[in-house]
Amino acid sequence: MIRGKKAAVGALAAVLMATGMGLADAGTAEAAGARYKCKSEVHLSLGRPTATSSCKKSSSGKKVSKHRVKLTCDVIRGTGAGSEHTIPWTLWGPWKKPGEKSTVQCGFRSFLRSWSVETRA
Prior knowledge:
There is one protein chain. The chain is an alpha+beta fold. 26% of the residues lie in helices and 45% in strands. The protein is built from 1 helix and 6 strands. It has one helix spanning 2-33, and strands at residues 36-45, 48-57, 66-77, 85-92, 102-105, 110-120. The chain has a 3-stranded antiparallel sheet with strand order 1-2-5, with no helix packed on it. A hairpin with a 2-residue loop joins β1 and β2. Residues 46-65 are annotated as: Disordered.
């Protein structure tokens, strides 16, 4: 009787493990063919321009493995009354997976010039 229970438990464990392996394979196959639409937004945080990019699943999107936000700011340089000038400064957020957000922020004494999303297939 004990041998029969052990055999049944072993068979059940093998079936559950095989099912779990099948589900794991199906998840990676779906992720490999997934398509995403990425967007970027910008807002002010304590007077500093802050940009965020994110990607959502979409049937009409494109294949994306990673994304990041690109932010271009005009930085004010010079301290004198007539010597102040602006320099374009480009910042990139960290590469993130499609479900995560990438964020970057301009420094103080900066003005927003442009922002966009960069993607990797």
